[in-house]
Design goal:
- About 55% of the residues are buried.
- With about 400 residues, this protein is mainly alpha-helical.
- The N and C termini lie far apart (about 65 Å).
- It has a two-stranded antiparallel sheet.
- The chain contains 14 helices and 2 strands; from the N terminus they run ααααααββαααααααα.
- About 70% of the residues lie in helices and about 0% in strands.
Amino acid sequence: MLELTTSNVWMMLCIALVFIMHLGFACVESGFTQSKNTVNILFKNTLTPAIGLVSYTILGFNLMYPDFADGPGWFDFSGFFLNDNLGLAYNPSFTYWTSFLFQAMFAATAATIVSGAVAERVKISAYLIFTILFVGFVYPAIGSWTWGGGALGDMGFYDFAGSTLVHAVGGWGALAGVIVLGPRLGKYVNGKVVDKPGSSVPLATIGVFLLWFGWFGFNGGSVLSADPAKTSLVLVNTSLAAAAGALGGFLMGYIAFKRLDLGMVLNGVLAGLVGITAGADLMLPGSSLLIGFIAGVLVVLSAMTLDKLKLDDAVGAISVHLTCGIWGTLVVGIFGDKAGWSQFVDQLTGVAICGAAAFGSAFLIFFLLKKTIGVRVSAEHETQGLDSHEHGIRGYTITHE
């Protein structure tokens, strides 16, 4: 009984840590984007976890953790709303309700990733509809293939805390949105990339540190118990990868841009965190340092590549969550306890299947929205800012008498 209580308390603490990550995302996105869109960014980031919790309650949890009728499969559903008598797959180390809330906090994160990439030009109505569908259907269906006892996990695919199942799934959704929406006005002019300075570098920095803080719950809670040896190893690996990611972003940013680029250091931290998430329980600290450092390098190279392709990601979400999510998933077959060619093939297969499903679904949703209600604000609204046109207030209202 004491062990159950200890694990349950630890998981509830992790729930609180993952919850605070939504504030981190809000700070990063609003800090890295223009001040004329601050309220719009905060509006989306407030409603995203709200929509995520409600849709995951009504539908998502029972879709992600069904009782597969004929053994591990690709789709099953245990009914609407929560019911601890349904016999759903959840960990016996803590209660049904704790299990639900921990997974619900994860669910909204996938949509929040999309929010940053499509910022400053997406219609709020289109984004909210996308969030309902993506969090309600797409994310839990893909998650069930591994975490819910489905076919992909049965094939050998491994993702400890979601480098693919959370981050890359959200990253694929972000890539689909960026392609359908197109770049912000004036972002690419005569073959050159035009910087659009964010509203607050300090706010973005605060956001990254909040995300790093929250990741202790994101990865630490994914142990699914308060086991001291496993939990402490996961937290060490998480911290080391984040630190090494910052160094990788710093060095690669300096090589690429010949300046001390704070934005790349901040995204390097996040890159390292995403990169270690799939195998945080499998690695030794030395491997975690290398994984994080390479992730920090990759996030810079990815951002440069996206700009060359004129794929406008307002905050670098695709580079952080998709590029480094894929990297973090594949390294399970390269380093750590499961390393080997067979595992690498399993990881590559999982990346391909989840990527096709997430990108295909997100692209279809955005495309249908584009053909019906439209996905992009008018040029006038984008130029003048979404705050005044969609919300009627400004994010920064400092006045002098």
